[in-house]
Amino acid sequence: MKTLPKPSPAGTLGVPSLTFRAYTIKELGCLYFPQKTAIGASRSLRALISHDPVLLSELRAQGYRPRAHYLPPAAVQVLLEHLGTPMEFYEILRQS
Questions:
Q1: pLDDT recorded at residue 18
Q2: CB-based contact 17:85 (threshold 8 Å)
Q3: What's the pLDDT tens digit per position in 58-87?
Q4: Which of 59, 90, 86 has the alpha carbon at shortest distance from 5?
Q5: What is the CA radius of gyration of the chain?
Q6: How far apart are CA 27 and CA 45, in angstroms?
Q7: Are 46 and 28 in contact (CB under 8 A)?
Q8: ∠ at Cα 53 (92, 57), nearest 5°?
Q9: pLDDT at residue 15 in the model
Q10: How far is 25 from 13, CA to CA, in rounded Å?
Q11: Which H/E stretch holds residue 71?
Q12: How far apart are CA 40 and CA 19, in angstroms?
């Protein structure tokens, strides 16, 4: 199981690292999709979650609901396991 990273060079790329706490979907969307607006980023994150049945089922087991505004820390941990850190995810998106 991946653990939340400590503050690191992620901030040097404009993609800050995560701390262990609850996040709004909008906050996480902006971390994972920094090139988009806040609304576009949250929509992209919700679409990513809804199109991955394994991720969706694991998030639901941690209390995620499709209309929820917040993800509890346990659900953020599941997201990290599937997507990697925002920095890792951003690097993959940049290369594609």
A1: 76
A2: yes
A3: 999 998 998 999 999 999 999 999 999 999
A4: 86
A5: 12
A6: 10
A7: no
A8: 110
A9: 52
A10: 21
A11: strand 70-71
A12: 23
- Distance CA(81)–CA(40), nearest Å, equals 23
Strand partners, 7: none
Burial class (CB in 10 A: 0-12, 13-18, 19+), 87: buried
Alpha helices in 1-96 (DSSP H): 25-32, 38-50, 53-61, 73-83, 86-95
- Quick: pLDDT tens for 8-53: 444 444 555 678 899 999 999 999 999 999 999 999 999 999 999 9
Check: pTM over 0.70? Answer yes or no: yes
What is the spatial distance between Cα 43 and Cα 21, in angstroms, rounded to a whole number?
A: 21
What pLDDT does 17 receive? 67
Q: Is 23 helix (H, G, I), strand (E, B) or coil?
A: strand
**CB 3, CB 10: distance < 8 Å:** no
Write down the pLDDT at residue 27.
96
